[in-house]
Amino acid sequence: MLASLLRGAHVGFVLAREGGLSLIEAGDLPPHLRLALRAGRLLERRGLGTGAGPLQRALTRLGPSYVKFGQFLATRPDIVGLEAARDLETLQDRVPPFPQDVALRVIEAALGKPVQSLFVSFSQPIAAASIAQVHKAHILDPDGTERVLAVKVMRPGVRERFQRDLRVMRFIARIVHALSPEAERLRPREVVEILARSVTMEMDFRLEAAAMSELAQNTKDDTDFRVPRPDWEHTARDVLSSEWIEGIPLNDRAAIEAAGHDSRALGRAVIQSFLRHAIRDGFFHADMHPGNLFVDPTGTLVAVDFGIMGRLGHNERRFLAEILLGFILRDYKRVAQVHFEAGYVPAHHSVDDFAQAIRAIGEPIHQRKADEISMAKVLTLLFDITALFDMRTRTELVMLQKTMVVVEGVARSLDPQLDMWTGAEPVVRSWIARNLGPLGRIEGVGRAALTITDVVSDLPDLAQRLRRILVRLDEAGTGNADRLDAFARATRRRAIWSTLALWTIAVGALVMAFR
User: Which of 382, 375, 379, 378 minimizes the C-alpha distance to 420?
Assistant: First the structure.
């Protein structure tokens, strides 16, 4: 506790010194915390600017764990606000690479063989971040074919450092909750635990390889998008090997056009691929910034870095498809009904009132040109409206909305005139026709019949269990009265002795104080 207190004090000092406290709204705090905030802001250096810039500097100074925390907050605009989340997107997770000989030792310990026997050649680090760094390697297949791999190597000691910093974050979250229960609306303890789970998964490269493999399987028939293949033989918890991608990053539009690629088609492929993954598959890349997207020599879109992924269940996918189609068709009543059918809005609210609120979002967008309408902004406004109707925050939908903001930005950087809604419509209609049309209904009836069959087959076993429980309750009932009486007497005795002990301690403290 003392170590956490000292480290927490250091975190607070750095945040105050670098201006990271400027994002806190003083009006939302109780008087004693407003006073503490004013005292903390006296430590600010002058000329730090506004927005999330000071917070970025503070997190960078605090180290890789806090940079990762800032990047995580960038995916949660429901916690820090949309503007701060957008600013935090630029937080860079770049640190100097660790030595080559250390990387070789990590690989040999993880894969159990000397590097010389694993690879024909192994480069110096190509890129480095707080968790890992990437090398380029060549391997020789049994048939004599030479392949090029991207090899990601875990940074030594990173797990221990993250666990230490997470203990401090948990400690700070508990203090925030104790000092201001009102701050629980930001769910500081839940945020830290979600970050802890995310980082734990990100630090096992076998899970990232599995995500890469799953997305590759989902998209194997897509002609405009592909995923590099993981190399399982050269992958372990601390090492991830996958197909090396030769391509142009999507943030280099000049190089894309110079290579003869169609930037307009690429922009459409970005938005349609994302929607296919989210709506068709329910599994999407949740970190689709331009640095993680490339166009290969054939003009195909390629994604890399699968540490952060999002999932949507069938209900969430139906919700997303129907609200997008509802806005396209201006069917606001249907959009409202979908919210109620999914159970997102409590039943005591009026569907008609909710549809009226949604119309206030939808009608203005139809007064503008299609290429001026932001699909991500519509979803953001929709979530703002739903908050007025007691819709609880759903993490998976927030991650989806935030990813859509990034994807839309990437698509529009390739084609500023891109009509997001026209691009989305075929994907949305295809899913609805397949899942909510006649074929989908037949499949739904089949699934329901299987469920009923399973329940019926379990009835004899359930009846036997219920009988045993009733017999035990009947046997236990005869002695319950005596046990309850004995428990009450024991509780009274403990209360009396606890009270006497507290008074003894208090009297002893007073005697020592007056000596």
Answer: 375
- What angle is formed at CA 235 by the lines to CA 234 and CA 240, rounded to 5 degrees? 110
What burial class does residue 160 get, using C-beta atoms within 10 Å of its C-beta: 0-12 exposed, 13-18 middle, 19+ buried? exposed
* Rounded-to-integer distance, Cα 327 and Cα 321, Å: 10
Structural domains in the chain (count): 2
Mean pLDDT of 122-149: 91
> How many degrees, rounded to 5, is the angle at CA 366 between CA 358 and CA 82?
60
Average pLDDT of the segment spanning 467-491:
63
Give residue-wise pLDDT tens across range 414-436. 888 887 777 788 888 888 887 76
Asked, for residue 237, whether it belongs to a domain, the answer is: no
pTM reported for the whole predicted model: 0.72
Closest CA to 132 of 115, 151, 149, 152: 152
Q: For every residue of 94-119, which 3-state class applies, written as one string? A: CCCCCCHHHHHHHHHHHHCCCHHHHC
The residue annotated as part of the active site, out of 165, 238, 287, 305, is 287
In a domain, residue 128? The reply is: no
Give the residue from 436, 457, 491 where a domain finishes: 436
- How many residues appear in the chain? 515
For the four alpha carbons of 52, 57, 60 and 63, in that order, the dihedral sign comes to: negative
Last residue of one domain, picked from the residues 37, 66, 93: 93
Say whether 220 sits in a helix, a strand or coil: coil
283 has which bridge partners? 311
Strands, E assignment, 280-424: 283-285, 293-295, 301-303, 309-311
Domain ranges, residue 84? 2-93
Ramachandran region of residue 63, left (φ > 0), alpha (ψ -120 to 50) or beta?
left
User: Looking up tokens 């026209």, which residue turns up?
Assistant: 422
From CA 32, how far away is CA 15, in angstroms rounded?
Answer: 19
Q: 390 phi and psi, to 5 degrees?
A: 65, 30
Active site residue 238: no
* Largest interatomic CA distance in the chain: 90
112 occurs within a structural domain:
no
Q: Which of 211, 179, 297 is nearest to 248 (CA)?
A: 297
Residue 180, SS3 per DSSP: coil
Euclidean distance between CA atoms 172 and 473, whole angstroms: 46
Nearest to 403 by CA among 74, 56, 88: 74
Element of type H or E holding 367:
none
Nearest-CA neighbor of 425 among 337, 514, 321, 351? 321
Q: Is residue 421 part of a domain?
A: yes
| Range in 97-106, 267-276, 306-315, 501-510 with the lowest mean pLDDT | 501-510
